[in-house]
From TrEMBL:
Name under which the protein is recorded: Small ribosomal subunit protein bS20
Alphabetical UniProt keywords: Ribonucleoprotein, Ribosomal protein, RNA-binding, rRNA-binding
Protein family: Belongs to the bacterial ribosomal protein bS20 family.
Gene this chain is encoded by: rpsT
UniProt cross-references to Gene3D superfamilies, sorted A to Z: Ribosomal protein S20
GO cellular component entries: ribosome
Region (Disordered): 1-25
Length: 84
């Protein structure tokens, strides 16, 4: 544990940021997984789930959680599954 006040504050803020980032990444993965499960099952609400998944991916990209190319690659894969 750090002794310097600024280092102590940095530990607190980095823990808060880590919790927030982990939560958002988990939410993104969950929405993508829901879409993929619906795609394999052939559900009727695939368009809505696709929009939610793309929105979650874009949010993660905007926040800097994933790289721009990964976001585009993931969205392309989802679009390909939607087209099937």
């Amino acid at each position: 544990m750090p002794n310097i006040e600024s280092a102590i504050k940095r530990v607190r803020t980095s823990e808060a940021a880590n919790a927030k980032n982990s939560s958002q990444m988990s939410a993104m993965r969950t929405t993508v997984k829901k879409f993929e499960e619906a795609a394999t099952a052939g559900a009727e609400n695939m368009n809505d789930l696709y929009k939610e998944a793309v929105k979650a991916i874009d949010m993660a990209e905007t926040k800097g959680l994933i790289h721009k190319n990964k976001a585009n690659r993931d969205k392309a894969r989802l679009a390909k599954k939607l087209a099937k």
